[in-house]
Amino acid sequence: MKNELTKQSILLFEKKGFNQTSIQDIVNALDVTKGTFYYYFASKEQLLMDIHHDYITNLLKRQYGILDDEHLTQKEKLMKIIHLLITDIADQGPSARVFFREIRYLSDENIETIKQKRNQFRLNIQKVIEEGSKLGEFHNELRADMLSFGILGVTNWSYNWYKTNGEVSPDELTKIYADMILTGIAKRR
Amino acid sequence: MKNELTKQSILLFEKKGFNQTSIQDIVNALDVTKGTFYYYFASKEQLLMDIHHDYITNLLKRQYGILDDEHLTQKEKLMKIIHLLITDIADQGPSARVFFREIRYLSDENIETIKQKRNQFRLNIQKVIEEGSKLGEFHNELRADMLSFGILGVTNWSYNWYKTNGEVSPDELTKIYADMILTGIAKRR
Amino acid sequence: MKNELTKQSILLFEKKGFNQTSIQDIVNALDVTKGTFYYYFASKEQLLMDIHHDYITNLLKRQYGILDDEHLTQKEKLMKIIHLLITDIADQGPSARVFFREIRYLSDENIETIKQKRNQFRLNIQKVIEEGSKLGEFHNELRADMLSFGILGVTNWSYNWYKTNGEVSPDELTKIYADMILTGIAKRR
Amino acid sequence: MKNELTKQSILLFEKKGFNQTSIQDIVNALDVTKGTFYYYFASKEQLLMDIHHDYITNLLKRQYGILDDEHLTQKEKLMKIIHLLITDIADQGPSARVFFREIRYLSDENIETIKQKRNQFRLNIQKVIEEGSKLGEFHNELRADMLSFGILGVTNWSYNWYKTNGEVSPDELTKIYADMILTGIAKRR
DNA sequence: GATGAATGAGATTTCATTCAT
DNA sequence: TATGAATGAAATCTCATTCAT
């Protein structure tokens, strides 16, 4: 039941937004009553926090799976992280959109917790760039911090428009963006 | 008064979100009454629409100023558009954040109007890329559509984190991102 | 201007009701401003009172025109009064409907004034019946009071449904109702 | 509770009118809170619709009870319907007055529904008159439609003035009006 | 585990009226 | 005569949450 409530909530939060979704909406969708909701969740915000926590924890875990693979070059790591984000937003659309859009409705304390994890994710990208620079895979003197934000922008922005069932697959989109980030779009003279 | 209400609303919407900001909050900040608000705005949503409309209209106008300059190469146009976005988000932070975050609270009809203009802005970027490819400034066979989304991601994402008063100026950030987009971060072998 | 305001108000009060019609609605219809309204009327209620007072005063005056005509039998007087009411409701539809429906929105004091005049109108009918009984035009021992209410019911109810432009003219309707009231619908054995 | 809210509302609507009665007034009278009201009714209008629907449904049911009785002549049916209306208005005064006065505050859609039922009630009277004409109980060539409106006027108007506790009982009033309608008030020469 | 009646605080909106100009 | 900005009181409605069962 808790699981069903969470799933249904994600769908509703995505469609109508956290604030526009009432507990009543959620329990109606499952044909149970409000009491049931409060049996499983301490508050509406707690549910939102659960969703956020699950999402970022899972993402971080998978990022570490990439980072910890010693056979990969930094370039490969970066590509795999881009791929991770694109596919995740494509596959878990609703969760991803709730994650990016509704963080504001968490309590200050919870926002802090989530932002820390989000920042950790970004810092890990920054480190890949720094390491790549040092190892000669990437240019020297890159602003790894600014670039990590830029790369996250490229990928995360896709939650605003990207639809899996379009003509471009996640794999293709990954290649398009990785090419742009690694080699640019300008022709060499 | 209408102007003051709009300005104050933007600040509050940015800080607390559209939904979390009550009309009471707005009028309290200016020491007037709710009646005054409704003398100037038909509804809370109408105010939000005004904000959105002003923002995107201004942005589009400035984009066309760049596009219509015949002395510029496509590469230069692209750089100027990136610069336009970065500086705009830096300078008009609150408006920009309201624009990106609160569009959801518009009516379906108004969302449509705004999205059309937003899409026009993106299509204009796409055309620059296509033209650049044709003229030999950029690679051939680029997915100009996907790249236009990616470039917007890089710049627009900055509303989430970028602060003007940090160590990196808008001009510098523009250069960092233009370099990445045009020539990539990977070292050529 | 005062006259135009009154006329327009009657039309709006009929269509939307007194309460549902705002001063704004009224002045909008004449392209003036609220200040203008309050220059001519002390309050919204005062306007309604004016409308009521004009209506019932006019009706009473015309009733006395009938009553004071010494050439008429009581039967003829009754018929003329029925005719007066039917035609008035037909001709002055909006005023009539406002008069019957919106009295509630007058102040207690004003209600009293209007009700007194309305009752005078009814009492005058009652007197015609009593006089007719005494003179042998009508049956003896009629409950003239109850009948006066009944006759007013027949005629006044028409404001609820009667439309002049239908197939039955006010003159025809008067005859139908006068026949019913005077001779009944049952066949004599 | 729902029932108590409805009952109390009818009393308040009668006394002050639908518009002049706030939800606050209603719940204050029962010492509950506004939330309670909205737990039971979707809106203030829904409550009004419930009242209307119940009233006219009950009235129609009782009318059919009369119409379907094959032992009755048309004259008797007409008398019983008059009796039904008079007693109903006398007994259920508040409901009746709300029914006649406040229909305007229903939504267009709901007005339509109620008016259809009201019209059915009237058409049933019209049919009795037509049938009575055919069977020789009533005159030929009566305008049964206009007369049905007139008869309803006689009875329904009583909600405006009739008080049970006066000197005339519902049974007596029924006789007075039935006599007028069937045989008229004029003396036969 | 689950129900559902009840709460209470707050949100948006309406509008008659005032008043300085 | 007329304007229009501003007020303030009240109205409808929403909803997260509680709690006895």
TrEMBL record, chains A, B, C, D:
Keywords: DNA-binding, Repressor
Ranges that cross the membrane: none
One GO molecular-function entry: DNA binding
Residue span(s) of domain HTH tetR-type: 1-59
InterPro entries: DNA-bd_HTH_TetR-type_CS, Homeodomain-like_sf, HTH-type_Tx_Regulator, HTH_TetR, KstR2_TetR_C, Tet_transcr_reg_TetR-rel_C_sf
Signal peptide range in chain numbering: none
Domain of life of the organism encoding this protein: Bacteria
Protein name: TetR family transcriptional regulator
